[in-house]
TrEMBL record:
Keywords: Signal. It comes from the Bacteria. Pfam families: OMP_b-brl_2. InterPro entries: Beta-barrel_OMP_2 (IPR025665). This is PorT family protein. Residues 109-242 form the Outer membrane protein beta-barrel domain.
Length: 267
């Protein structure tokens, strides 16, 4: 787990360094000093360092690189567990039956290439959480493979199973020309990948109060799948489907996948 956090920190530092190198812009002014014998020309160079991509300047020459620290593509929506292509869970997977399920994520760094005013491609990094509010009074077993659980004698008022991933999407984005309001239609698609950071089960009951357990729970160490975003200005909708199995080394849960969809901000 420490290695993953170190990787995350290193990537963010690299993104910042690359951005500073890319985002430097040079403005030269010429000052002429005239004397009786000669004319001396001096050049003064100003360096402007900016954080984050600046895509709104139509005077920029293309292609150009961009990148840096960001807080964008904030996804919030619903999540659905698919069991061999169906939304109904099989008998072996009834322990995962949920009241509600949601998905939340955002990007914190990016680096890419804008080929024109209408098209760019970039890789970004961020975090993503998936929440399952379980119906059954079960306690997931820690340090076991495949995934296993115990039927609890306690009635839980809250039983939330959460997955946390460090996500790294590769995106291809097209945007229309600006309309009279200066706004655009946007379409983005690509591959969403992620590395498991942790699994968490949060419980709340009258008998035991609040409880919190952390483990990998045989969750997929690496998740991947296609995604798409459709938007106007800074708002949009998203959908993503992870083709990998939700759990690994757990034969009874084979072909159990995750689908998420909802709204996207800062897009």
């Amino acid at each position: 787990m420490k290695k993953i956090y170190n990787i995350t920190s290193t990537l963010l530092i690299l993104f910042s360094i690359v951005n500073i190198a890319v985002a430097q812009s040079y403005t030269s002014t010429v000052t002429t000093i005239t004397s009786q014998d000669s004319t001396v020309v001096k050049k003064k160079t100003d360096i402007e360092i900016s954080i984050g991509a600046k895509d709104g300047d139509e005077t920029t020459k293309y292609p150009r690189a961009f990148g840096g620290i960001t807080f964008s593509r904030i996804d919030w929506g619903f999540s659905r567990i698919m069991d061999d292509g169906a939304f109904t869970l099989s008998e072996d997977n009834q322990f995962l039956k949920y009241k509600k399920a949601s998905n939340f994520g955002f990007d914190v760094a990016q680096f890419g290439l804008r080929a024109s005013d209408n098209f760019k491609t970039y890789i970004s990094a961020g975090f993503e959480w998936n929440y399952l509010r379980l119906e059954k009074n079960i306690l997931l077993n820690e340090n076991t493979s495949p995934i296993s659980y115990e039927d609890g004698d306690v009635e839980y008022k809250k039983n939330v199973f959460t997955t946390t991933y460090f996500r790294m999407p590769l995106t291809f984005e097209w945007r229309s020309d600006k309309n009279r309001k200066g706004e655009r239609v946007k379409v983005a698609f690509g591959a969403m990948t992620g590395v498991l950071l942790k699994g968490t089960q949060r419980l709340k009951s009258k008998e035991n109060g609040k409880q919190k357990f952390k483990d990998n729970y045989s969750l997929a160490s690496f998740q991947y799948g296609p995604f798409i975003r459709l938007g106007y200005d800074d708002f949009g909708i998203f959908a993503k489907y992870y083709v990998n199995d939700f759990f690994e080394k757990s034969p009874a849960q084979k072909n159990l996948n995750n689908l998420a969809f909802g709204i996207s901000l800062g897009f």
